[in-house]
Structures are given as C-alpha cells and as structure tokens.
Amino acid sequence: MRTRIIGSTLAAAFALAASATLFSQAAPAGQAGRGGGAPAGQARGGGAPAAPSPPAPARDLTGVWMMRNPPGKNGPWTNFTYTDPMKSPPSLTAWGEAEFKKARDSNGGNYTLDETNDPVLTKCYPPGVPRVYFHPYPFEVVQTPKQTLLIYEYDHWMRRVHTDGRALPTDPDQLWMGTSVGRWVDDRTFEVQTVGFNEKTWLDRLGHAHTPDLKVTERFRRVDRDHLELDIKMDDPKALAKPWETTFYYENRPNWELGEISCSGDYLDWTQVEKGGRDYKR
Fold first, then answer.
1. Signed CA dihedral, 222, 126, 205, 267: sign only
2. Where do the domains of the chain lie?
3. Which residue of 28, 115, 187, 194 could cross-link 111, Cys pair, CB 3.0 to 4.6 Å?
C-alpha cells in the first residue's frame, strides 16, 4: 500500500509539472500515435499563421481533444481551479467554507505532497466531474444514436451521456462520475447535465467540497473544425452560495490516439522509489 500511495502521489506531481506546458503548447513530439506537428492555426517553424480552420460539421463532437488556452484566455490558476482564487474565488456557503478549511492541497503550493489530503493523490480516487478536466491528458468523444461517450485518457475513465431523450433521474445513485443526459441545443452546442455524485471527490485541485446535491452543466461548443469551448456550471446549494462557472478551451488532435495513464503511476519508472533510493521520501 505504501508503494502504491507514493507512486500515485508522484505520478500526480509529474502530471502537474507537465500541465503548464501541455495546456499552453503544442503536442509533445515522439509520442506513439501523436505527431508533434504544430497545433491548429499555427504554421510549422513559427512562420505565418495557417489558414483559418474550416467550419465544424453539424452536431458532431467526435475526435480527440486536448486543452490549449488561446492567448489571453484564463491564467496559470487553470491548472488547479476554475477562477482566479485572488480576484474571483467561488462564493461558498458556511458549510462550504468549513469544508474548504479542512483541505490540504498540494497543487496550490500550500502543502507538500507528504502533507496533502487530496483524495486523488493519497487514495487514487477517481477525480469526479468536473475535476477530471484538470488532468493534463486528452479526452475523446464517441457518438452513437443513443449515447455519447466521453473517454478520458487519465485512468481510463469513461462517461456515458444518454441522448435517447430520457430525463435526469430524480433519485440517482451516488457515483464517482455521476449520471449524465445530453441534448443538442443547436448544430454547434451539445449540453450535458450530470447529477448523482458521491461526496468523496473535490470540485477542483484546491479542495473545494461538494454534496450529493451537486449538479454539473457542461456546454460543449464546437467553434470550428479544430476548436472546442467547454462552458461548465456547478450548482450545489449546500456548498456554493451561487453557481460556479468557467470555460475551458480545446484543440482537435486528429492524429492522436488515447494512451494508457494509470493513477498507480506504472507508466513511469518507480524503481528508485521501490528500492528506497535517494528520490524516496516519506
């Protein structure tokens, strides 16, 4: 168990260190199934920008998407929370404030990895929704007539969004990733509503808590063929005094395939940790 906890913690630390680069730069070169070409709208070698992206196909989100903030959009805090924690923190209830004081996050620099109580780092818990979007790995959308699948490279998580016309359940099971239904608002906007969460996850990497009454609304807006905007709204009357909203930005990666990323950290070399080498810290 000790090796697993330390391995998962270091894996998450590696992910955080990589996230600043991945969120703001092109695809890393040399990854299997992932060409290192310039991102959409940018020419190779720093030359003149490529031609504008063509229009998106109607009612189609299929493909692999990678977060990439456009210039001037969002800030460094988007690696760990949704809005600027200094200028526009979430409006919390008294319960939300009390729970937040219990959090010992390592992503905001307040605690070390040895001190954190982040459930993703210490227990390999699933990240939940919408925290899953902070992981610096792509996700893939697969559409079928009755459901849309959101497949995340991180820890193989998949969400099943029902599009067969059913309503949200009134008494949902309490799950890690909730129960989701979706609909097309127009030819470019797909709305997903999710309810039925357990209380074991954080909303973000700073440790904001939620209750089983959490409702997450996501609006996937395909701007053109190569760009996607994701509006997220979190409603939880017990934890949030008012809804918490944000927008994430993504680029299409048509030549990428999802890899295998495990919370256990087995995609990295942990031999020094397992042998108690100099990098081993307890």
1. negative
2. 2-33+61-275
3. 115
